[in-house]
Amino acid sequence: MEIRDYTERDWPQVWPIVREVVRAGDTFPYDPDMTEQEARDIWVERPPGLTVVAADAGLVLGTAKMGPNKAGPAAHISTASFMVSGDARGKGVGTALCRFALDWAREQGYAGMQFNAVAETNQSAVEIYQRLGFELIGTVPGAFEHPEHGRVGLHIMYCAF
Predict the structure, then answer these.
(1) Which of 16, 25, 73, 76 is the most exposed place for a label (fewest CB within 10 A)?
(2) What is the residue extent of each domain of the chain?
């Protein structure tokens, strides 16, 4: 598996992953009915951000986007988001994408990485993030409407560099 910069040629494989994850409604606070164009506008980062894909033999297994968490006086803190194809979950793709994002952010001179909205029910992601150095800063109770569990908390997680 290689992680490389996203190109427009990747979108036909990235869109089904984004659509699958968003429509499940259990991890990302995106509208499950978002259109393909809305998804592209949200997912494909512009500089200074970056969007990448994890691919194996031409097959896109997952994707990540990264960049500044906020603009202006908070632009020294990065953020990232990750999506992995259902067929590739549990095979280390998400971990590899997160490691890549952390390395990229360090190389770009960010002071740390912050995740603003990690659904507390997304235990596999929480465990990966903690294993890679993130701390659970706090949880906004009932901030995420999970399709099976109702209102659950959204974690704020941070990794200082």
Answers:
(1) 73
(2) 2-160
Segment 132-152, tens digit of pLDDT: 999 999 999 999 999 999 999
Kindly state the DSSP code that residue 7 receives in the 8-state scheme: -
Using CA atoms, how far apart are residues 61 and 54, in angstroms rounded to an integer?
A: 6
Q: How far is CA 56 from CA 3, 158, 159, in A?
A: 9, 30, 29
Residues 51-78 pLDDT 10s:
999 999 999 999 999 999 999 999 999 9
Going by C-alpha positions, the residue among 147, 91, 99 that lies closest to residue 124 is 91
Give the domain 2-160 fold: Aminopeptidase (3.40.630)
Burial (CB count within 10 angstroms: exposed 0-12, middle 13-18, buried 19+), residue 87? exposed
